TrEMBL record:
This protein's UniProt keywords: Membrane, Transferase, Transmembrane, Transmembrane helix
Entry-linked SUPFAM superfamilies: Nucleotide-diphospho-sugar transferases
Species per Swiss-Prot/TrEMBL record: Flavobacterium caseinilyticum
The protein's name: Glycosyltransferase family 2 protein
InterPro entries cross-referenced by the UniProt entry: Glyco_trans_2-like, Glycosyltransf_2, Nucleotide-diphossugar_trans
Presence of keyword Cell wall biogenesis/degradation: no
A molecular function (GO) term: transferase activity
Length: 291
């Protein structure tokens, strides 16, 4: 059995996947398997992956499912991963040639308190996305990395598979295709730390059709998914600022969903009441920006 699964949820990304495939073929260590979760693609993804499987350069597993969204792809991946460690590399991203080697070297002697490691994302020209992780940190929770240590930008997480499998799947909402992935990360934060690694594990390219570039539209199209995420952020938020900010967003998402029962699911009712006027203002702003 391989030590690492690199998994990639993909939807109509046959034009981008060759870049990731090439980077995986160049890895200096081949102790990994590539799991592609095809989330209902209607392009040539299936035949393209079949041709790579025939080449046999790397081990590839392909799973097709009806379209569920990115979080549904993560659910399916976690259900099917059997290697000790896993990392998600999105279909529009790729890995430096030594990424698998760095991951396995840093995961080799992880203690029981660690759920995995957290490393850096970078652009094609080598610029770190956001900021580096403070060098003095030997252990950190992902949420604290941003809220306490003021680190910015996307980071790449490698998890122990047996840890991830302990936690609930992302919920699926009818007619919605997006739930923010930080729900699972917050749950893991309550029980485990991550070991920081100030090395680039992923090269990131934000696409015009990607979720990062269309967040206002995502917010409006998938209000229940966002509301679900805000409830967990309020519950587990470490600072008042974090909890209040997410209370404002929860009010806004409840308005988009036309379901005010979301406001009753928070464990901070007074905070929710205080956030109502700001949430209404945010909702109006998003409506204006997403026209």
């Amino acid at each position: 059995m391989k030590s690492l699964t690199v998994f990639t949820p993909s939807y109509n990304r046959a034009y981008l996947l060759p870049q990731l495939y090439s980077s995986l073929c160049r890895q200096t260590v081949k102790d990994f398997s590539w799991l592609i979760v095809d989330d209902g693609s209607t392009d040539s993804t299936e035949s393209l992956v079949a041709s790579w499987q025939q080449e046999g350069t790397i081990q590839i597993q392909y799973i097709y499912q009806e379209n569920q969204g990115m979080h549904g792809g993560h659910n399916t991946a976690y259900q099917n991963i059997s290697t000790p460690f896993n990392v998600c590399i999105d279909s529009d991203d790729f890995m430096p040639d030594d990424a698998v080697a760095l991951i396995l070297m840093n995961c080799e002697n992880l203690g029981g308190k660690f759920a995995g490691i957290v490393g850096l994302d970078a652009t094609k020209n080598g610029e770190i996305i956001g900021t580096r992780i403070p060098e003095h940190l030997a252990a950190v929770k992902l949420n604290e990395l941003y809220t306490i240590h003021q680190v910015r930008g996307d980071k790449k997480i490698v998890y122990k598979t047996d840890v991830v499998k302990k936690y609930p799947h992302y919920p699926l909402y009818r007619n919605e295709r997006f739930v923010p992935l930080d729900y699972l990360y917050l749950l893991i934060d309550q029980d485990y730390d991550l070991q920081p690694v100030n090395a680039v594990l992923c090269i990131v390219e934000y696409q015009e059709d990607g979720s990062s570039m269309n967040m206002f539209k995502q917010y409006r199209k998938h209000p229940n998914g966002f509301a679900f995420s805000r409830v967990s952020r309020i519950k587990y938020g470490r600072t008042f600022k974090e909890r209040f900010k997410n209370s404002i967003h929860l009010v806004s998402s409840a308005l988009f969903a036309k379901d005010f029962s979301w406001l009753l699911k928070s464990n901070r009712p007074i905070l929710i009441v205080a956030a109502v006027p700001f949430g209404i203002a945010l909702n109006l702003y998003i409506r204006y920006k997403s026209v």
